[in-house]
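residues and backbone:
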Amino acid sequence: MITELRGDARVSVFSGGDLYRKADGDRIGHALVKDVSATGLKVETLDCLNVGERIFVDFRIGKRAMFMRMPVRVERIQSHAGSYHSGLRFQNEEDRMQVRQALAALFDGKK
C-alpha cells in the first residue's frame, strides 16, 4: 500500500531492522520498519529515540535490497500504545538514490 505523507510517497513494508549508535558499534535495539520513502523510514521501537540524534539502521526492502548501517537522523517521535513511532531521515543523497531504486524495483517486480 502507498500512503501520501509529507513530500514523498511512502510504501508499507513491515520488516525488521536493527539500530546502532555508531556505524561500527553494537546494536542498540530492534525496530519494525513500517514504511519507507525515498527520503526516510517510519519505524516502531520499544525504546524511545532522541529527536535530532544520528543513528544507523539495517533494513530490507523486499527480498533483494538489504541496507546496512545506513545513517539516519531522528526527525520526530510519537508515543503509540506502549511503543514509539519514529520518523528517520536518510542523511546521504547516494543512500536516497539507492532506496528509490529499490522501491522502483519492488514495484517493477510486482507487475
The chain has one domain: 2-93. Residues 1-5 have pLDDT under 50 and may be disordered. The helical segments are 93-108. The first strand starts at residue 2 and ends at 5.
